Amino acid sequence: MVHGKVFSAQGRDISCAMNKRYCRGNYTDLVSIRDQQQNEEVKIKGLNSSTPFWIGLLRDDWQWTDGGNSTYRNWASGQPLSSPYNCVKLFAREWYSVPCSNVQYPLCYNTSIHVSDVALSWEKALDYCHEGNRAGILNIDSEAEQKEVASELRRRRVSEPVWVGA
Predict the structure, then answer these.
(1) Which of 50, 118, 130, 157 has most Cβ atoms within 10 angstroms of its Cβ?
(2) How far is Cα 33 from Cα 20, in angstroms, rounded to an integer?
(3) Are the C-beta atoms of residues 45 and 124 closer than 8 Å to each other?
């Protein structure tokens, strides 16, 4: 688990657009790597194999498929290439821009965020989050995590305030 995400490298060679649909249908989305720490954690988790994987970065102003901005990038030497190399694969720890019609394995993630469907007081929210093998109330440790949480709440159409740890 990296920054509240569980990664899943799927053994299916499919195009970037199909990967995005696949990950969103079966997980949350293609993976977004927001900073050097996350890039290192992905490597530590063993996802730096010789197999290339799609990640969720697109040339459209180099935005992540989950809507987040990309300020951290780990391009290989000579990268990124110009259009039509509009999608990004992770290969041997570095990022490469490639045509979106290429086929690669998707690197998907599931968030570990759970949002209650009932509004609760702070104390009851703490109890709720510790019930049923949940890890506890969400702590946000960086601006990157704040952006990820905000993006996930938008994706889930949560517009009401939510409790987070301090």
Answers:
(1) 130
(2) 15
(3) no
- CATH code, 5-109: 3.10.100.10
Residue 6 φ then ψ, to 5°: -110, 120
- DSSP H helical segments within the chain, as ranges? 16-26, 36-44, 122-130, 143-155
For 74-108, write each residue's pLDDT tens digit.
Answer: 999 999 998 888 888 888 778 999 888 888 777 77
Q: Tell me whether residue 46 is exposed, middle or buried, using C-beta atoms within 10 angstroms of its C-beta: 0 to 12, 13 to 18, 19 or more.
A: exposed
CA-based torsion, 54, 59, 60, 61: positive or negative: positive
Backbone region of residue 25 per phi and psi (left: phi > 0; alpha: psi in -120 to 50; beta: other values)? alpha
Two tokens, residue 146: 């704040």
Q: At a CB cut-off of 8 Å and minimum separation 6, what does 13 contact?
A: 103, 104, 105
Residue type, 65: T
Q: Which residues pair with 8 in a beta bridge?
A: 108
| Distance of alpha carbon 50 from alpha carbon 26, whole angstroms | 24
Domain boundaries, the chain: 5-109, 114-155
pLDDT > 90 fraction of the chain, expressed in percent and rounded: 5
